[in-house]
Every structure is written in C-alpha cells, then in structure tokens.
Recover the amino acids of this structure.
C-alpha cells in the first residue's frame, strides 16, 4: 500500500496510539548562564498518564497527533470519526492501517454510536490490519517509537 501513488480521493492513513507517563519537575531548573549547560535535577514526580493518538498519511505527507486522558474504546471511536469529519470529509474512502488491538474494529463503533451513524461511517473506511507480530509495518507505530525516545 505504501508503494501506491498518492490519491487524494483514497488516502492511505496509518494510525496508532501509545500510553505516556506524565512527569513533573520537583525542583525548578537552575537558570542558564552563558557557556554552561542546563542544570536540571533528575528527580521527578508522576502526574498520571495520557494516551497519544497518531494519524499519518505517508503518501501525502500529512500528520495529526492528539492526546487524550485515557486509552479507551470510546476515545478511539471519536478519533476515527474526527479523522473523517474534519480532515477527510470529501474522500470516497479512507484506507486505514491499524494494528490488531481489540478496539480497532467496526464493533467498537456500534458500542458508541447508533446503528444508522455506524453504517454511514463504515462506508468510508477500509481497514487494513498489520500482522500479529508485524505491527512495526505501521508507519504511525514507527513514528510513536521514535517520538518516545
């Protein structure tokens, strides 16, 4: 799919999400002086977690990142709906590359939206799942792993 020519009417979009630990400073960093490196204490406090969703269109050079408080089925469903409604409202279909997480399917849509709305959404998506141990083939997952380093 990544070798296809870019078609703005049928975009290939890769999607993945990852949990991140939110950290806060215990002590304020010391102010910088000319010619000296930052002085930051390595002690930190845990401030919870968040889930970062990444959507990327590798053929068109498009990217969208959004953080949510939790990684839930409902959060994923609303991200999918926003992808179509806000960023790709005039396409014939979106080719969505996802991993095999249990919430990445049409059934999740039925648990949040009414049947009529789900039928409308389903028409616009074509799901492509990466193999069970090959989720690294999803470009969004590669971006998340580079981002977290």
């Amino acid at each position: 799919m990544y070798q296809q020519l870019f078609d703005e009417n049928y975009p290939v979009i890769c999607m993945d999400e990852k949990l991140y630990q939110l950290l806060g400073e215990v002590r304020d960093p010391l102010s910088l002086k000319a010619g000296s490196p930052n002085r930051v204490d390595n002690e930190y406090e845990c401030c919870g977690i968040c889930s970062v969703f990444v959507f990327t269109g590798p053929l068109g050079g498009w990217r969208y990142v959004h953080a949510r408080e939790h990684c839930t089925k409902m959060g994923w469903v609303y991200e999918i709906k926003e992808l179509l409604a806000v960023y790709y409202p005039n396409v014939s279909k979106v080719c969505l590359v996802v991993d095999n997480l249990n919430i990445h399917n049409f059934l999740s849509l039925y648990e949040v939206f009414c049947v009529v709305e789900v039928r409308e959404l389903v028409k616009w998506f074509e799901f492509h799942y990466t193999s069970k141990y090959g989720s690294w083939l999803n470009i969004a997952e590669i971006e998340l792993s580079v981002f977290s380093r």
Remarks:
- The chain is about 25% helix and 30% strand.
